[in-house]
From TrEMBL:
Domain spans labelled HTH marR-type: 1-138
Pfam family, one: MarR
Transmembrane segments: none
Coiled-coil segments: none
InterPro entries from the UniProt entry: HTH-type_Bedaq_tolerance (IPR052526), HTH_MarR-typ (IPR000835), WH-like_DNA-bd_sf (IPR036388), WH_DNA-bd_sf (IPR036390)
Protein name: MarR family winged helix-turn-helix transcriptional regulator
Taxonomic lineage of the native organism: Bacteria, Bacillati, Actinomycetota, Actinomycetes, Kitasatosporales
Organism: Streptomyces galilaeus
Highest taxon of the lineage: Bacteria
Length: 160
């Protein structure tokens, strides 16, 4: 007999294939931000300005990968480099006004698609699904030792 985790694995695999789809009609060309930029900007928005070292620790990626990603985001006008607000030596990255605007636009579009996907779900079902998904992610983060900060409920309302 297969364990239920086999079904979770398969459904998670299917879910991961959808992450590259854009928010509008499933056409990638409609995406506002590349997936890696969306995740990078989302982390900096929740945590505040971060250095390459902090980003490397947060994502579990080597500094050269983060250097490429942040350089592309700076060239695109999504991030800017600033002195460490706490007086440290390393420069940090913060969202620009354009980065904030595009992140908000992308998030609104993703939520619109999720609203369409779950149009026939009850509020209770959506709330339960969100709770299970958060619990699932928290379990992964605990094993990996890289917890992801989450915005407060008030922040969620102002972001979208």
């Amino acid at each position: 007999m297969q364990r239920p985790t086999h079904e979770v694995e398969y459904e998670q695999m299917l879910l991961s294939r959808h992450t590259f789809l854009s928010r509008r009609g499933g056409r990638r060309t409609d995406a506002v931000l590349e997936r890696s930029a969306y995740i990078l900007l989302s982390r900096i928005r929740v945590q505040g300005p971060m250095s390459i070292g902090e980003l490397s620790d947060a994502f579990g990626l080597d500094a050269s990968t983060l250097n490429r990603q942040t350089a592309a985001a700076v060239r695109a006008g999504l991030l800017s480099r600033i002195p460490d607000p706490e007086g440290g030596m390393a420069r940090k990255f913060r969202l620009t006004t354009q980065g904030e605007r595009l992140l908000d636009e992308e998030r609104r579009g993703i939520v619109e698609v999720l609203d369409r996907v779950m149009a026939d779900w009850s509020q209770d079902d959506i709330t339960a699904f969100a709770s299970y998904l958060k619990r699932f992610n928290n379990g992964i983060e605990a094993i990996g030792g890289r917890p992801w900060p989450r915005p407060s409920s008030q922040d969620d309302e102002t972001d979208g």
